[in-house]
TrEMBL record:
InterPro entries: FAD-bd_OxRdtase, FAD/NAD-bd_sf, FAD/NAD-binding_dom, FAD/NAD-linked_Rdtase_dimer_sf, NOXase, Pyr_nucl-diS_OxRdtase_dimer. NCBIfam families: NOXase_Strep. Residues 2-305 form the FAD/NAD(P)-binding domain. It comes from Pseudolactococcus hodotermopsidis. Residues 332-428 form the Pyridine nucleotide-disulphide oxidoreductase dimerisation domain. Belongs to the class-III pyridine nucleotide-disulfide oxidoreductase family. The keyword NAD applies. The gene is noxE. Keywords: FAD, Flavoprotein, NAD, Oxidation, Oxidoreductase, Redox-active center. This is NADH oxidase. Its EC number is 1.6.3.4. It is an enzyme of class 1 (oxidoreductase).
Length: 442
């Protein structure tokens, strides 16, 4: 069995490792257009903001590691065409040399691509995107320049908020824009998102929400950002509007989702029996929605790669769906969520209710302590939990894993009310905020 994997970041790596480590008789070929692989893009803001010493440890493996395992790997090679009928991949390396590889099974792990606003001035210098390592390097270099004083970040999702913090830590005046009325609107309800907004403002970031970029101005290099409300003088623009599936290679041959992502089954198989798709270029099943959707997260990419690898290798393994669990920490303020917010559930047509609670993480006599805010979202008809959000300066991140499992297993809000939760003053309160929130449900 010969498997060709196009794309060698998180999903492709997970698939390749699964095949090479578990099914030694499988021939593996990896093709990637980049000069590096395994870059942890979620660490870009930490490096750019000088919260870690450098970028070197943001790479967790190398092409040589796969060669040592027996894989054939082509780096800096661009796939130009896939002959799905004869099962051949055609590609060209950086020297312009053309090659081809036949396959028994093909894995598309081409990831996602940034959404580029189609507005005047989009080709000016000084306008950056953040996806690849090289793009992070370019942003870091520009932030090192003394003449770059004002930075506009467009998009207040996770990447936008994180890079806004990083630029502020580098001593820049930062303007943060988003068309939505709050930051992090895709993950958190306003009652939570506004707390992050307050945190950003308290640390000197200028917020411009409900504002849409309409034009970039400049003579070769961007000097102004025009929105539907005002014009701002800027020295640098970082676009973080979001991502969409990078599915150009197979879009005409394979069934796709409404955003263009490859439609896959529980084995990560596409509409072509010989082709699998993993990671950000493919759909995923949401246990909160109980339906197919698109969620671009590195953790989902890894899991989908593992599932595809085992099915290609001969072990039937069903994906169990995801919840879209996520988290963020900005200037010491931590927020985590999983499943659907109230806003997202209503947008999906799910009739929900929610219960909120706020209390100290630990008993009042513990000096190192802080408030925790929690929301549990549940479907009215079935009363199953479909989402949770938490926020605190305490580390409340592990709690979201329990809610992720609860959503996966269709646990009801009533089953949570008397959940066995341990108590010790070092960690929590006897009346735990999870219990109290659940007991507060209608």
């Amino acid at each position: 069995m010969k498997t060709v994997i196009i794309g060698a970041n998180h999903a492709g790596i997970a698939c390749a490792n699964t095949l090479l480590d578990t099914y030694p008789d499988t021939e593996v070929v990896m093709i990637d257009r980049n000069s590096n692989l395994s870059y942890l893009g979620c660490g870009t803001a930490l490096w750019v903001g000088r919260q870690i010493d450098g970028y070197e440890n943001l790479f967790y493996t190398t092409a040589d590691n796969f060669r040592k395992k027996g894989a054939k790997i082509y780096m800096e090679s661009v796939v130009s065409d896939i002959d799905f009928i004869n099962q051949v991949v055609h590609f060209t390396n950086k020297a312009g040399e053309k090659s081809a590889e036949t396959y028994d099974k093909l894995v598309l792990a081409t990831g996602s691509k940034p959404i580029v606003p189609n507005i005047p001035g989009k080709d000016l210098d000084g306008i950056h995107f953040l996806k690849l390592f090289q793009e992070g390097l370019a942003v870091d270099l520009d932030l090192s320049r003394d003449d770059v004083k004002t930075v506009a970040v467009i998009g207040a999702g996770y990447i936008g908020v994180e890079i806004a913090e990083a630029a502020k830590r580098r001593g820049k005046h930062v303007l943060l824009f988003d068309a939505m009325p709050t930051s992090l609107a895709s993950y958190y309800d306003p009652e939570f998102a506004t707390k992050m907004d307050e945190n950003l403002e308290q640390h000197g970031i200028s917020l411009h929400f409900g504002e849409l970029a309409t034009e970039y101005k400049g003579d070769g290099h961007v000097t102004q950002l025009v929105t539907d409300k005002a014009t701002y003088d800027v020295d640098l623009v970082i676009n973080a509007i979001g991502f969409t599936a990078n599915s150009d290679l197979g879009a005409e041959h394979l069934d796709t989702f409404k955003n263009g992502a490859y439609l896959v089954d529980k084995h990560q198989k596409t509409s072509d029996d010989s082709v699998y798709a993993v990671g950000d270029c493919a759909t995923i099943y949401s246990n909160a929605l109980d339906d197919t959707t698109y969620i671009a997260l590195a953790t989902n990419a890894v899991r989908s790669g593992i599932v595809a690898g085992h099915n290609i290798g001969g072990t039937v393994l069903d994906a169990i769906g995801v919840q879209g669990s996520n988290g963020i920490s900005i200037f010491g303020y931590n927020m985590v969520s999983t499943g659907l917010s109230v806003t997202a559930a209503e947008k999906a047509g799910i009739d929900v209710d929610y219960t909120d609670f706020e209390d100290l993480q630990k008993p009042g006599f513990i000096k190192e302590n802080a408030l925790v805010k929690i929301r549990i979202v549940y479907e009215k008809s079935s009363r199953r939990v479909i989402g949770a959000q938490l926020a605190s300066t305490e580390d409340i991140s592990a709690t979201i894993h329990m809610f992720s499992l609860a959503i996966q297993e269709h646990v009801t809000i009533d089953e949570l009310k008397l959940l066995d939760i341990f108590f010790l003053p070092h960690f929590n309160q006897p009346y735990n905020y999870i219990t109290m929130a659940a007991l507060g449900a209608k």
